[in-house]
Amino acid sequence: ARFLAEQYQAPKEKREARFPLTLNTGRLRDHWHGMSRTGTAARLFGHVEEALLSMNGDDMRRRRLLDGQLVKVRSRRGELLLPVHKDDSLRPGQAFLPMHWGDRFLKGLGVNSLTLPAFDPISKQPELKHAGVEVEKIELPWQLFALVEGSVQKRFEALRPLFEGFAYASFSLTGRERPALVIRAACNEPPSRTQLAQLEQLLGLDEGPVLVYDDPRRSVGKRVRIEDGRIVALSLSGETAARDWLKQLWHDGKADQALRRWLLAPLSTPPGGDVRPAKTLCNCMNVSQDAICSGIERGLDLNGLKRELGCGTSCGSCVPEIKRLLVKQPAVA
């Protein structure tokens, strides 16, 4: 390797009133580059499932943004729509967007539509870590959430072109033994009934054992397909309050008779209790963050967590995050 001692040079782009935030980009723990390979493995989405813009909580409060809300990120070169995520590990004035989300997985040209073309004249390294941006909330009243398991890559290729007319569309995978495609989308006006019918057909929701609810006046349509006592596909269009707990029901592989009457209801939580999505912290050994936090509460240290749960015993990439949890949530004496 050849090392050169160079004088420090400030970033090409400086903050200003129109673009007061500094956007940083980088990789996620479980993905690589444009996800041409890692994006085909559903289990690798268990840690971070969708494209999110991370911001400090103070910056979000000043802009009256809520966690999970759709926002528009603007730079001097372009803009991108995606949900915002509160992350107080970021300093005020900074924002972070993973580099992996290109136009295959996210409507738009991806994160590089925001970054600048400047590069180092010696190493040719592009300056992708310092772009001035502004973030503002955006109202897209008609939203869609869909999930379908099986033949995910084939379905992905068939479904992706249908969303070119949407203002926002995000695609990801989920699951392990039963991989599934997850679609989130939003726009100002509902798509045509013909387009929705095509979507339902490609999702396998146009016939068979499908629960159906339609309210044409409000442009709301819901479909849940149940086979062998569990959800295998679902679509919520126009109203998506139940998306998180329905997705968790799919993940858990159950849809008992007592719950079925509520599957199409506009409820953000299921009757009888809360169903929280389980974040996978250790992908190699399929250990959730909840399981690790429970172990810490019982007094397990890092070695104890490794012995009992197996987390951190394979590739080790989850160990730094486990250590942060141990600091944040000390074991009970």
What's the short version?
The protein is of the alpha+beta class. The chain has eight helices and 14 strands. It folds into three domains: 21-137, Beta Barrel (Barwin-like endoglucanases), CATH 2.40.40.20; 142-260, no CATH class; 281-328, BFD-like [2Fe-2S]-binding domain (Arc Repressor Mutant, subunit A).
Give the overall pLDDT as a whole number. 92
Rg: 22 Å
Tally of helical runs: 8
* Shape assignment: globular
Strand order of the biggest β-sheet: 1-5-2-4-3-6
Largest sheet: 6 strands, mixed, barrel
Terminal CA distance reads 49 Å
Structural class, from secondary structure content?
A: alpha+beta
H/E topology pattern: EEHEEEEEHEEHEEEHHEEHHH
Number of domains: 3
Q: What portion of the residues fall into strands of 2 or more residues?
A: 25-35%
Structure summary, number of beta strands: 14
How would you describe what is shown here?
The chain has 333 residues and is α+β, with helices and mostly antiparallel strands. The chain has three domains: 21-137, Barwin-like endoglucanases (Beta Barrel); 142-260, no CATH class; 281-328, BFD-like [2Fe-2S]-binding domain (Arc Repressor Mutant, subunit A, Orthogonal Bundle). It is 20% helix and 25% strand. The protein contains eight helices and 14 strands. It has helices at 57-62, 152-159, 193-202, 243-252, 257-260, 289-297, 302-309, 319-328, and strands at 21-26, 53-55, 70-74, 79-86, 94-98, 131-137, 142-149, 168-174, 180-187, 210-215, 220-227, 230-237, 280-282, 287-288. A six-stranded mixed barrel has the order 1-5-2-4-3-6. Strands 8-9-7-12-11-10 form a six-stranded antiparallel beta sheet, with helices on both faces. It has a two-stranded antiparallel sheet with strand order 13-14. A hairpin with a 4-residue loop joins strand 10 (210-215) and strand 11. The longest helix has 10 residues, at 193-202. The mean pLDDT is 92.
